[in-house]
Amino acid sequence: MVRFSDLGIGPGLVQSLSSQGITEPFEVQIESIPSLMNGRDLCCRAPTGSGKTLAFGLPLIERTKPAESKRPTALILTPTRELAEQIRNVLDPLAWNSRMKVLSVYGGTSYGRQLKGLDKGAEILVACPGRLIDLLKRKALTLEDVGMVVLDEADRMADMGFMEPVCSIIEKCTSNPQMILFSATLDRDVAKLVKLYQDDPVRIEIGPKEISMDSMEHLFWKVKPYKKTEIAVKSVRRAGRSIIFCRTRAGVDRLGGEMQLDSIPLSTLHGGLNQRQRDRAMNKFSTGRSMVLIATDVAARGIDVEGVNCVIHYDPPDDAKAYKHRSGRTARAGQTGVVISFIKGNEQRIYGRIQKQVGIKKRFSEPRPEDLKKNDFKIIKEDPNKANRRNGREARSSGKPRRNQRGRGGKGNRSRGNGNGRIYRNSPSNANKTGKNRNRGNKKRGQRSGSKKRKADSRP
Predict the structure, then answer these.
(1) What does the alpha-carbon distance between residue 39 and residue 179 come to, in Å, rounded to a whole number?
(2) Among 183, 262, 273, 455, which residue is least crowded by beta carbons within 10 Å?
(3) Which of 79, 121, 87, 90 is nearest to 104 (CA)?
C-alpha cells in the first residue's frame, strides 16, 4: 500500500492527515504529488470528487515559503465561492498545524475580513478571479512573492468568462511561479492556458474523459407548466435526497416557496444570496438537515455531496455540457441515480438536440413519479441551541434595534413610584395625560393609514 510518506510528504503533515482518518492516498494524489514536490509544472484532468484538493494542497503546504503582510506565497484560483470555501475548509486545519495560514477571498462578502486577513499575512490565498482583481486594484496585496499557482476547475473558469482576468492575474505573479492546472477537460481555452503559462508540464489524466451517462437512468417527462411543482414534490418524496435545477434566481425562490407549502425540507441556492446564506444552504443539504437542494447552475460544478439519488432539470439546461454537469451530481462514486427532465411542449426540440449530443436516446413520456425507486431519507434535526444562536446573530445583523427588556413600555408610560418600589404604568396621576396622548396618537395613525390605503389602491 502506498502511503503519503512514500510520496515525499513530511511526517508532521502525515500525522495531521492521520488524525483526520486520511491514511491512504487516492490515485490522483499518487500520480500528482511526487512531480509537484519536485517543482514541476503539472496539467491534470480529473473529475470533481477525485481527491484533487489534497493532490495540490499538500505540496503547497510543504513547499510554500512564509508570507509577509499583503504578500501571499501561494495562490489557488477557483471559479465559485462554494469551491473556494470547500478548498479552504480542507486545507486550513492541515496548514494551521504547519504554522501556515489559508485565506479565502471572493465576492458577495464584505472587504473588511479579507483586508484584515491580508494585512496579517497568509501563505495560501484561495481566490475567485473577480474579487482578487478588485483587491489588486485597491493595492490590498501584491502577487510578487507567489511561487506556486493552482488553477482549479480551469474549464469552468473559461466557461464563466474568467479567461482574461485569470491571464491578468498570472502575469502579475512576476516570480515565474510553478503552474499547476486541474480541469475536467483539457481542450480549447484550457489548452491555451497550458501553452501560454506552463513549462514542459507533467500531464496526468484520471478517470473517464467525460461524465459517464451510463450510470444514470434518464427520464424525459412531458409536463404541463402548472403541474411541474406537483410532479417535483411527488418525485422527491419517492427518490429521497435530490437536487432540482432552475434557470433563474426568481425560479428557485418561487419553486422553493411552493414546495415548502407541501412540507418538503429544502434549501435554496443561487447567486443572489449572500455568502452566509449560501454556506448555510449547502451545510443544511450536505449534513442531511434538508432533503432537497433547489439551485441555479451555480451548484452544477464544484459541489461534492454524496448520496444524491435524483437530479431534476426543472428548467432546461443551456446546452449538452450543462446537462452533463447538472446530471453528474448523482450516480457518483460507483452509485446509481435517476435524472429527470421536465419538458414543456415547445422544449422537445431542445432536449432532442441535447440527447443527440450526450449520446443517449430516450422517449418523451408521461410523468410517472410513482414508478421511481423508493429511497428512505431521515431528516437530521438541528440542535435547538445552535438554531437559537444563529437566529440571534441574524437578527443583530439585520440592523433592527434590540428590544429593551427592562421597562418595555418606555419612559413615557412610566409614573413615579408609590414608595414601595413598584411602578404603575397607568397611575391615576397620569391617566388624563396618557389618555390625551393616546387619542392624539390614534388620530394620527388613522390619518396615516388612510393615506397608505389610498396609495395602495392607486397601484396598477
Answers:
(1) 9
(2) 455
(3) 87
Closest of 424, 405, 404, 422 to residue 414, by C-alpha: 424
Closest among 189, 191, 195, 151 to 170, alpha carbons compared: 151
Which cell is 64 given? Answer: 510554500
Q: Go through the chain and tell me how many residues it has.
A: 460
The values of phi and psi at residue 264, to 5°, are -85, 120
Q: What are 43-65's pLDDT values in tens digits?
A: 999 877 788 999 999 999 999 99
Order of strands, sheet of 292-295, starting from the edge strand that comes earlier in the sequence: 266-269, 292-295, 242-245, 310-313, 337-343, 216-222, 364-365
Which triple of cell numbers denotes residue 110?
464584505
**Residue 242 neighbours by CB under 8 Å, 6+ apart:** 235, 236, 291, 292, 293, 308, 309, 310, 311, 312
Question: Residue 222: which H helix or E strand, with range?
Answer: strand 216-222
Q: With helix as H, strand as E and coil as C, how does 137-157 read? A: HCCCCCCCCCCEEEECCHHHH
**For residues 85-107, b (16+ Cβ closer than 10 Å) or e, as one string?**
bbbbebbbebbeeeebbbbbbbe
Q: Structural domains in the chain?
A: 4-205 (3.40.50.300), 216-371 (3.40.50.300)
Distances (CA, A) of 363 to 27, 348, 386: 38, 10, 48
List, for residues 352-394, the tens digit of each pLDDT value.
999 999 999 999 999 999 999 999 998 988 766 665 665 565 5
Give rounded-to-5 percent helix, strand, coil for the chain.
45, 15, 40
Question: pLDDT digits over 146-171, tens only?
Answer: 999 999 999 889 888 899 999 999 99
**DSSP secondary structure code for residue 404 in this structure:** P
- Please identify which residue in the block is written with the cell numbers 497568509: 122
Sign of the Cα torsion 262, 263, 267, 272 reads: positive
The alpha carbon of residue 72 and the mean position of all alpha carbons in its chain are separated, in whole angstroms, by 24
Ramachandran category for residue 421: left, alpha or beta (phi over 0 → left; psi -120 to 50 → alpha): left
Q: Which helix (H) or strand (E) segment is 103 a member of?
A: strand 102-105
